[in-house]
From TrEMBL:
The keyword Metal-binding does not apply. GO terms for biological process: pantothenate biosynthetic process. It is an enzyme of class 6 (ligase). Residues 334-353 are annotated as: Disordered. Pfam families: Pantoate_ligase. Keywords: ATP-binding, Ligase, Nucleotide-binding, Pantothenate biosynthesis. The keyword Nucleotide-binding applies. Its EC number is 6.3.2.1. This is Pantoate--beta-alanine ligase. InterPro entries: Cyt_trans-like, Pantoate_ligase, Pantoate_ligase_C, Rossmann-like_a/b/a_fold. Gene3D superfamilies: HUPs (3.40.50.620), Pantoate-beta-alanine ligase, C-terminal domain (3.30.1300.10). Transmembrane segments: none annotated.
Amino acid sequence: MRVLRTVHEVRALRNDLQRNRNSAPRVAVVMTMGALHEGHESLINAAKSSGTFTFVTIFVNPLQFAAGEDLDRYPRTEQADLARCEKLGVDAVFAPLHSAELYPRGSAEQTVIDVPAGRPSQHPRSEAAFRPTFFLGVATVVCKLLHIVQPDDAWFGAKDAQQCCVVRQMVQDLNMTVSIRIGPTCREPSGLAMSSRNKYLTDAEQATAAVVYRALSAGQALWTEYRKRRLQQRQPLTYGALWEAATAALDVLKAESAVCVQYIGLSDAEEWRDLGGGYPLEPQPPDLQADTLLPQTLLVAILSTAVIVGSARLIDNIALSIYEENAPVTGTASSEALASGMHPSTVTKVPRS
Ligand SMILES: Nc1ncnc2c1ncn2[C@@H]1O[C@H](COP(=O)(O)OP(=O)(O)OP(=O)(O)O)[C@@H](O)[C@H]1O
Ligand SMILES: CC(C)(CO)[C@@H](O)C(=O)[O-]
Ligand code: BAL
């Protein structure tokens, strides 16, 4: 396994791979911030089957952390990460030693990929409302890493479903040719979504945090039962029933006093449009009432949440099948839905003030 520290080294390796065009391998990348766990492993294994040459990038990207977030204490476990990659048969790891390798001008002077504030993805019950500059940082570093590694496939996890939407839209808007592939969320036996930030939790807090998946599953079960009944009766589906599913999930979260809910929201999987309901309740999309019928074009809704447990902020989501034929049990159906979005335009800004 090659461990590359500089953009120059990655470019040299990429040129070597490309030298013989007739036998150039398919290249896949898994981008990470390190502190690797089985969720990352599942993406690496998927990438290995989609590409014959697999890159992993390890970079804690300062641009996606706002002031006061956990940049300084984000877990850094490089030796263990490299050993894990080696064991999995990764071909090359790009792990810059300093952020100046990617931001030589400093991150404040960096040309950035802006995700427009007006787009539907920026709704009040979503990541963008709580981390307003997060997607600018993610889109920028993902764009840079795609240009540096030049993969055929780039793999992302459905746990970060909104990130998947933002990356997919950027790739479409900027006419990039890479294929964005999405792997399902890996969970602990308790249902807790694996996450590097779980390291911030004590054992007791990890047990408490399992309520997040129980809550999402309760919302999904309520919805699935309603949907089955209505479709058997050949009745249409309403927004109100979807909102009840979000409320059911919220009630489970609220019953756990050690969990603080930042938001719980319903979004479509392609553009992350606000489907109403959820928490905080205001503002709601003005054109939606409880008895408004869900459009036949809505195949999957994503019920997503962010909560604080102990000193960790955790996110998770679950797919609710709307008019899709086979009801999803895991995130995989949402992955397919994420694969097909139309979207407003992404612009590139130079430079950031
Ligand atoms: N449980 C998981 N299952 C599948 N993919 C995952 C999981 N957790 C993270 N990923 C994916 O791995 C990639 C790298 O994520 P990252 O390094 O931020 O890890 P993370 O566990 O999400 O960390 P954080 O605690 O910061 O959320 C992303 O595409 C992310 O969606
Ligand atoms: C995609 C990513 C590696 C960009 O820093 C990060 O947001 C992550 O790990 O999900
Ligand atoms: N996996 C998302 C990275 C972040 O929260 O910064």
